[in-house]
Amino acid sequence: MTNGNFIKSSILIAREIPGEENDLSVLLLNKSIKVIRVGSGNEALRVFQTTPAVSLVMINAELPGLNGFYTTFEIRKLSSTVPVILFVNYVNTDSMRLSILVGCTRMLQNPVDPDELDTIIEQYLIQRGVYT
Question: What does pTM read for this prediction?
Answer without folding.
Answer: 0.85
